[in-house]
Amino acid sequence: MGIEIEVEQEEDGRWLAEVSELSGVLAYGQTREEAIDRAKALALRVIADRLDHGEPVPELDRVFAVVV
């Protein structure tokens, strides 16, 4: 299973997409797809930043498989 994105529509009509397992990954969009795309892009930035700073990224255990 990959990284989960939770999506809901706000009362004002905007869509909200959030990756709860990655702190700070929360994005709005005018459409459901736009919110999801923005959340994906932000999640990738957060993961890259963590890797650049040597911080653990346990979420990647589900993304990559290392073959010996």
Structural description of this entry:
- By secondary structure, the chain is of the alpha+beta class.
- 31% of the residues lie in helices and 18% in strands.
- It has one helix and three strands; from the N terminus they run βββα.
- A three-stranded antiparallel sheet has the order 1-2-3.
- It is elongated.
- The chain starts with 5 loop residues before the first strand and ends in a 16-residue tail after the last helix.
- The model has no long low-confidence stretch (mean pLDDT 89).
Report the order of strands and helices.
Answer: EEEH
Q: Report the average pLDDT across residues.
A: 89
Strand tally: 3
SSE-based structural type = alpha+beta
Q: Which regions are unreliable across 5 or more consecutive residues at pLDDT < 50?
A: none
Proportion of helical residues: 25-40%
Q: Please give the domain count.
A: 1
* Biggest β-sheet description: 3 strands, antiparallel
Distance between the termini: 22 Å
Cα shape: elongated
Radius of gyration: 14 Å
Number of helices: 1
Strand content: 15-25%
